[in-house]
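Hey all, sorry for the wall of text incoming. These are the two entities for the joint prediction.
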Amino acid sequence: MVDNKQQKDWGTSYGEMVWKEFAKSKFTLCWLGFIILLFLLAIFAPFLANDKPFVIRIDGQLHWPIFKALTASDYSILLAAIVALTQFVLVLHNRKSVDPSIRAGVLWRQITISVFIVLVGIILLFVFIPRRLDATDYKSMVASGKATGAVFAPVPYGFGRTDLKVREQPPNRQHWLGTDDVGSDVLCRLIHGSRISLSVGFVAVGISSIIGIIIGAILGYSGGKTDFIGMRFVEIMMAVPVFFLIITIVAFFPRSLFNIMLIIGLTTWTDDARFVRAEFFKLRRQDFVQAAVSLGLPLRSILFRHMLPNAIAPVLVNASFGIAGAIFIEAALSFLGFGVAPPTPSWGQVLSLGVSTTGRFLWWLTLFPGLAIFFTVLAYNLVGETLRDAIDPRLRESV
Amino acid sequence: MIPTLLGITIVVFAISRMAPGDPVSLAMGPVGMMDAQRAADVRAARMKLYGLDKPVYVQYAIWLGRVVRLDFADSIKHHRPVIDLIKERLPVTLTLNLISFVIIYAVSIPMGILSAVGRKKFLDRAGSVALLMLWSLPSMWVGQMLIGYLCGPPLNWFSPAGLSSNDADQLPFFQWLADRLWHLVLPVFCLTYAGLAYLTKQVRAGMLDNLRADYVRTARAKGLSNWAVIFHHAFRNSVIPIITILATLLPAMFGGSVIIERIFSVSGMGLLAFEAVTTRDYNVVMGVATIAGVLNLFGLLMADIAYAMVDPRISFESAA
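and here's what came out:
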């Protein structure tokens, strides 16, 4: 182990510098907390809103219906969350105990292992957990006295349950945020909808960043004819109205969450490509790149090992805005009826129910999902903006 | 320019042809009612009628040849030339977007300058968070809330749908104009606020960069008036990013108008596109996408030209 004295010699890394600058704004930290809260909400959605009780006593026997009713994807999300948390703790630990010169290598190994664990775990979960449909109405069992000692989730409704007796009810004791056109609980749908929004945001931006980085890196590094032709292609992608393109593709292809993520990712990479290209243009002539070239390193290594770390900052900032944008696009798609197929809940879909088929304005179906979208988008935009200010050294020097 | 145009047409054409399902089967519906042979015959005849029986590249060449002459063939749903539909709808969208553009630029430039000059004051701090909030507001939510609260029974200030009252045609000119403008208020507001917030932030950032520069200090040291320093020195140099944003706002405007036009039932290009997409009306989809793409490209070109006019250092001949 390393003692404290040596640790000081390592100095502050770029990441620590940025984080220190970032943490200066307490206001933004609050919003970062809000994002973390949203993630917890998404991860533990089935435990917060579910019509199955955690535990119930039927005929003197204890049952655990909620854990039996969770699907393989629910367990996969939990697994991924646990591994991600471990990885985060490991990163913090690395900072204290691993020498900076080998830190990147260690980090990559850890990430590889984590991804491996998650992938294997997900496959195993999907193989071994059967699809179950637990249609038992535990609530009526409790009401009729057949079962006792039931502990329900804070929002005791399933997102797919319909109950036409209580359709289009404004907020009340039973349904804190009211019910929608088929009698589903709005709060429950919003809690489960956070999963869609967050996953669309992350996966879509992941896809678009990767495409943008690769294209931008190749264009910026090679320059000349490749660059000219490539930039015309980027220009084409910029000139085609993106939202319209997305609507067209989504309407023509089967509606699934993955398709929506993929399409948003495939259509929004132009900004990333332009940023990375501009950075690579500048880096190309620098000595360390020339050294890497003359050492005979493969192109992949030059581009992504040596140059990319120096050009990643604008991509990171753009990613935060990109997540906000992707969440907005997903909500807009669902609002127009091109989103994930019901009964899968999504914020935009709930919002679209705000004007009923008879033209009545249902304020609780408009206000609450709208607020959810608004606060999430705002949080990501605020974080992105603060991150940009933290990364931009021009602003750091002055003031 | 020309290759980019060609590229747009290829993208548009490819997407509409990659899609599973074709308009003929959609129009015919389930085949169960007819016997198989007859259904196949009808299908083949229809395919031939719309030219869908030829190879894809031939279809593209034929389509491109027509597009050059602004002939987008007939709408499969409306049985009318697509170009006529677009001619009806385009002015509506252009009116909406042009008004929004003028408002965005007219309001956000002075606002951005003001907030940059008054930096560090409370008003500016609160202002920049407020701008970010404005930028993050989802337009479909704002639109629906506005309709719900301002067009509903208690207030009844605006009408929730369309761009004119039912009897608008019989009104005298000025009343007609007032009626028109009144109906435009809400859609234009929804189209404007996000771009307004975004541009104001950009103007502010650009002004701050320049106000901090050495030449501004020199100008102040020379004893120039505050006004001259701000407008003749700093602002002149902040104009370039403002023009660049024009290029990014344009495509966003068209996308935004799909949502806005749908919420407010404004029959513009966005709603036309939306309806065409839901009914798989290929020709309309392709027509609208091409026209929108070309308009955007035109906007980008204008931005480039304005760029060169404002900044003498930029010239297109010496581009590497």
